[in-house]
Amino acid sequence: MSSIFKEITQLEGQIIKDRRHLHQHPELGFDLPNTRDYVQNRLDDLGIAYRQCGTLPEEIRQKFARAGFPEQTDCTGILAEIGSGSPCILLRADMDALPIEEETDSAFKSAAAGKMHACGHDSHTAMLLGAAAVLKERESELQGTVKLFFQPGEEWGYGSKLVIDDRALENPKVDAAFGIHIMPDQEAGTLSVTKGTITQAMDTYIVDIQGNGGHSSQPHKTVDANMIMTQLYTSLNLLLTREADPKQNVTFSVGSMSGGTVTNVIPDKAVLSGNMRSFDQTTRDHLCQRIPEMIDHTVKAWRGTYTITDFHTPTTYNDPAFVDSISGSLADVMGEGNIVDLGAINGSEDFPYISQAVPSAFVILGTGKEGNPPVHNPRMSQDESIFKYGAALHAQVAIDWLRSQNV
């Protein structure tokens, strides 16, 4: 094991303590005031400079409110720096939780009703704080700058973008980035490393349909919003079967349809909400053009009008050259035999806003075993003894990569 891993092992108790505190006090979305305060206090303890980072434009706030997300007033990202000058590597941890009622019997179960760290962001934050302690101790050895990027709103697919828009990748300019995601149904102590595309893009469409309601005995005097909605459901699902290459992994799912109140009233309004998941950029570009066209033609064909609220999260891309450049560091921490390639994930992330800006690697750390409750499950749990590996990976990658750029 590397000397960095041995140093991290001495901090394991603090890493677990941080994780348990965060797990007990989950917060949702972009505005995480208590989580922010806890992380900033820990950075103060370590003597690490930071600033709150992130903007929440009114347009974005209204867009998420329209989509049914809780009202938000701020974006509480944190950007800290260790070292100075160029080159600069960014290490990322997300901090937000999910609107899930926890169903575990742990001693540090969520104390917030209806909220749970069911995706491991509590452990991501704790691991990066552990890495920060070692990096600060070794600051004189750093041949450049390490940026610590604690971001909110990952579950909403846009938190990293809000922080990046507040110049997180500038001054000094970030040259590379590294991120870790835990996986509770992946064998504990294994690290999945995949080159190329690693997560799906997600493109969400909420369609508000305006018809002209009336009595169910006189449909000819109405514009039936429910009928338009069902036609749109069929058209959008058929679109992929005829215009997406069958070799491409792409899906479209309608998760919500609503309209009407009683049987004898043709409704004035209806709402359809769905999203597309894809890996291939060419396929995605084509369908992102065609979906709005299909909505437009279908609604107008039945004399309705509409508005669309849409959200777009790109794919995460692991730069092959950057992955190769840090492979030795990964092996030093994990052991060569524990590094695997489990391929891309059928899920989405907001790390791509980083990976599309700078060469990046996003790796998956197993913290359980196959068959365990997965992420986003109310019974999700993790093997806490694995967290020290994640902290060591952050520190080892940062130190080694900065050194390699100055050879």
Verbal overview:
Strand 3, helix 5 and strand 4 form a beta-alpha-beta unit. The chain is elongated, with a radius of gyration of 23 Å. The strands form 4 sheets. The protein has an 8-stranded mixed sheet. The protein has helices at about 5-10, 10-25, 35-45, 60-65, 120-135, 160-165, 225-245, 280-300, 320-335, 350-355, 385-405, and strands spanning about 50-55, 75-85, 90-95, 145-150, 175-185, 190, 195, 200-210, 215, 250-260, 265, 270-280, 305-315, 315-320, 340, 360-370. Helix 1 packs antiparallel against helix 11 (about 385-405) and helix 7 runs antiparallel to helix 8. The protein has about 400 residues and is α/β, with parallel strands linked by helices. It contains 11 helices and 16 strands.
Question: How do the strands and helices of this protein lay out in sequence?
Answer:
Layout: H1 3-9, H2 12-24, H3 33-46, E1 49-53, H4 58-66, E2 77-83, E3 88-94, H5 121-137, E4 145-151, H6 159-164, E5 176-187, E6 191-192, E7 196-197, E8 201-210, E9 214-215, H7 225-243, E10 250-259, E11 265-266, E12 269-278, H8 281-301, E13 305-313, E14 317-318, H9 320-334, E15 339-340, H10 352-355, E16 360-368, H11 387-404
Parallel strand pairs: 3-4, 3-5, 5-16, 6-15
Antiparallel strand pairs: 1-2, 2-4, 6-16, 7-14, 8-12, 8-13, 9-11, 10-12
